[in-house]
Amino acid sequence: MSAAPSSAPESGGDDAAVAVVSLYAKTKKIHPRAVSGWFAAWRWVLVWATQIVFYGLPWLQWGNRPAVLFDLAARRFYIFGLVLYPQDFIYLTGILIVSAYSLFLFTAVAGRLWCGYACPQTVYTEIFLWIEHRFEGDRMARIKLDAGPWTFNRVWRKAAKQAAWVAFSLWTGISFVGYFSPIRQLVPDLMQFALGPWQWFWVLFYGFATYGNAGYMREQVCKYMCPYARFQSAMFDKDTLIISYDAERGDPRGTRSRKIDARSQGLGDCIDCGLCVQVCPTGIDIRKGLQYECIGCAACIDVCDGVMDKMHYPRGLVRYVTQHGQDQKLSRAQMWQRVFRPRVLIYTAVLVLIVGALGTSLWLRSPFRVDIVRDRATLAREVENGQIENVFRIQVMNTTEQPQRYRIGVAGLPDIALVGAQDLEVLPAEAQWQTVVARIPHASAASAGPGVHPIRFRVERLGETPDADEEKSTFIVPR
After folding, report:
1. For residues 122 and 108, what is the distance between their CA atoms, to the nearest angstrom?
2. For the chain, which terminal residue's Cβ has fewer other Cβ atoms within 10 angstroms, N or C?
3. DSSP state, residue 291
4. Which helix (H) or strand (E) holds 82?
5. How far apart are CA 396 and CA 377, in angstroms?
């Protein structure tokens, strides 16, 4: 953080001067200028796409339940037709690995694409700025309004903006909680102030986080709180596409009339209008080179291209380019050939393999799960007719959303059999424990000998699409 030194000489008894230095500088509020262009249009496409998904998914129905619901109380996670349990944590790990490799890949190819177009901080800041623009006007109008007195005009505009921000933030918090509690019941409960304490907490917490981050902190989150800004350079190289100012073409900078020949005046193409700084959401000057504060939103490209069009100069004074491409004057085709280098191809190959493995695992995932534990309350024992008995507990988890019937069997020792009921019915997306008793005749026990012997339990799903799963366990023959 930059320091703002200020000295105040003080006279002491020995006439020594003492300099008081402030280590902190007051943050200057940034008022980004509205911009239009090709990259701005794409940024709004991503804003709409991400928010339609975020706000729309909780309202979608899948049968008699929400299409996406993370029911923490019941420990069930519903994603359209997929029902996941805490035991399926490996899939969350796979999704996180895919996200990490995707970030590595996009960063190696074109820098901070995620930050500039799809990061929630960028998206919500863009929405909040749009709301601010509607009530307070563009950049100069906002600066003038903030610097002026508290007139009725300023009060109503500020109040209306704050009301819109609060309403949007609360709806964002409600939508977030709607992923964990059915939103079609959540909203009526909210209107009647009948939410539970944790629901209230997360609605208000997530809403406050949205309000604070997108309304006030804005670029401070990207510059000082986000770790990605600090380690992004480790994923860049000289063939990474970054937003750069062409100093060789643009300098020396200076204002001029459209009618004069800039070269004859010893000027470059940059007219030093400062618009690239005014549109930057983090307030940097791209003409000073790549800086860690740059989030890659390309607003400076759009506004600079507009200026170049008005001056009848070629576009591209500020553009996406690689360092090698700019230094070696590579053509666009040559530059893109070097963008798809071994590093990028390796990231792509690993990402494809992980996504393929994750998708295959989900596709081949068994429609039910079986866990077997020995009943610790009952030891292996000899019962009537000299039979040896072991007691087990079997848990069958039905991962489908229809009731299922299962048949339990056992094998692994001669003449081993189950005693009592062997069929089990499990309700949709439920798990049920069943106590089973396995016995072997005295002769088989004598033949096997005392000790621990491996056996296999087979659980077969009955119905139109039969399936089976086997789990290993052990049978103890006492001495």
Report:
1. 20
2. C
3. -
4. strand 82-84
5. 20
Contact 339, 322 (CB under 8 A): yes
* Biggest CA-to-CA distance, the chain: 113
DSSP letters along 8-51, please?
-----TT-------BS--PPPPP-PPP--SHHHHHHHHHHHHHH
- For 35-76, what is each residue's pLDDT tens digit? 999 999 999 999 999 999 999 999 999 888 899 999 988 888
Phi then psi for residue 112, to 5 deg, are -90, 60
Predicted confidence band of residue 9 (pLDDT cuts 50, 70, 90):
very low
Render pLDDT for 398-430 as a digit per residue (tens, 0 to 9): 888 889 999 999 999 999 999 887 888 998 888
The CA-atom distances, in angstroms, between 211 and each of 162, 193, 201, 424 are 9, 22, 15, 52
Determine which helix (DSSP H) or strand (DSSP E) holds 284, and give its type and residue range.
none
355-364 pLDDT tens trace: 999 999 888 8
Q: Beta strands 381-382 and 404-411: pairing type?
A: unpaired
Percent of the chain whose predicted confidence (pLDDT) is above 70: 95
Q: Which amino acid type is present at position 432?
A: Q
Is 274 in contact with 268 (CB distance < 8 Å)? no
In whole angstroms, what is the distance from residue 190 CA to residue 172 CA? Answer: 14
For tokens 């700025």, the residue is: 129
Write phi, then psi, for 476 (nearest 5 degrees): -105, 125
- CB neighbour list of residue 209: distance below 8 Å, 6 or more residues apart: none
Tokens of 286: 């791209």
C-alpha triplet 363, 365, 370: angle, nearest 5° = 170
The letter for the amino acid at 225 is M
Identify the structural domains of the chain with CATH numbers, from first to last. Answer: 29-365 (no CATH), 368-477 (2.60.40.10)
Residue 392 tokens, joined: 């087990």
**Residue positions counted in the chain:** 479
